[in-house]
Design a protein that fits this description.
This protein is an all-beta fold and about 300 residues long. It folds into 2 domains: about 180 residues, YVTN repeat-like/Quinoprotein amine dehydrogenase (Methylamine Dehydrogenase, Chain H, 7 Propeller); about 80 residues, Immunoglobulin-like. Helix content is about 0%, strand content about 45%. The strands form 7 sheets. Strands 18-24-23-20-21 form a 5-stranded mixed beta sheet, with no helix packed on it. A 4-stranded antiparallel beta sheet has the order 1-2-3-4, with no helix packed on it. It has a 4-stranded antiparallel beta sheet with strand order 10-11-12-13, with no helix packed on it.
């Protein structure tokens, strides 16, 4: 590795928590927001994490942990074949393997603990699914490229939100080899052996200050009884969105995460609202900042 002052440090011998030398070819390195270095080892070499304690040229204080996927109790790696790693918006470290997922909820404690297989309603989520790649969007949703299509999961509750396949979406194939997310636009790109395609998600990079909303379309006109979605942008993270009539009557409210939210033009009962002007009021749940916009609806 190379330090900011131009000094190089060579690291070529690593020993795990039991003092055993870690053998294998290193195939990928990922650095998390805590400064820990995560190393995927080739084939069934497992996963290693290295904490250099902010002294990369001094190996005496390094702390290393190594997992090989030999457990089946809901902890550690589901498989020793690690394919992907990423960090969510809350500091959780996600590992994708050929037999499912595992997560460090508190990534800063990784050198002192084991990851847990995500579970919901008494079952492990995506158990035995072959994971190829992963990424996290601005709404803290985990997008998972697998041999069975693309799964979208809430990184905090582990709820599976969507499962895109070639049968229910424009995907060319269910074998998705890689994906990446443009945080600024919220567009997701998928790579397959048949080509690359993309889709627009409803999340984008949040603003630091809630000031002026960008709403489009400003005129939402129903065609054939179908009203287009109304996009609310330039949001900060974690907002409450309220829709009001010009008389101040409450129409509906919902939460927005990331820099974008979507209103489908319906009230809290699920009915399309009548033609008219509607105010959109966004409030940041943490700072209390507010911003107001409006949209015209024609049915």
């Amino acid at each position: 590795m190379r330090t900011p002052n131009g000094q190089w440090a060579g690291l070529n011998e690593f020993y795990d928590q039991s003092g055993q030398r870690i053998e294998g070819d290193f195939t990928r390195v990922f650095v998390d927001s805590f400064g820990k270095k995560w190393v995927i080892l080739f084939y069934e070499g497992g996963l290693m994490v290295l904490d250099t304690k902010n002294t990369p040229t001094n190996t005496a204080d390094d702390k290393i942990r190594h997992w090989t996927g030999k457990r089946s109790d809901g902890k550690g790696l589901p498989s020793a074949q690690v394919r992907a790693i990423c960090e969510d918006r809350k500091g959780g470290i996600w590992i994708g393997t050929t037999r499912g997922l595992t997560v460090f909820v508190f990534g800063n404690l990784a050198t002192d603990s084991d990851p847990n297989w995500p579970s919901r309603d008494g079952a492990y989520v995506l158990r035995e699914v072959f994971v190829n790649d992963m990424a996290v969007d601005a709404a803290n949703r985990l997008w998972i490229a697998t041999t069975e299509g693309v799964w979208v999961m809430n990184a905090e509750t582990y709820e599976v939100l969507y499962h895109y396949t070639k049968e229910n979406s424009p995907l060319f194939t269910n074998n998705i080899s890689a994906l990446t997310i443009d945080d600024n636009s919220g567009r997701i790109y998928f790579a397959t052996d048949l080509g690359v395609l993309s889709m627009q998600s409803d999340a984008a990079k949040p603003q630091t200050i809630l000031s002026e909303l960008r709403i489009h379309p400003l005129l939402a006109k129903a065609e054939g009884g179908v009203l287009p979605n109304i996009y609310i942008e330039n949001l900060t993270d974690e907002n409450e969105i309220r829709i009001l009539s010009t008389a101040g009557t409450h129409i509906t409210k919902f939460n927005g995460f990331g820099g974008r939210a979507v209103w489908n033009g319906r009230d809290e009962a699920g009915n399309l609202v009548p033609s008219g002007i509607y105010f959109i009021v966004a409030r940041n749940n943490n700072s209390g900042e507010r911003a107001i916009g409006k949209v015209a609806i024609v049915r």
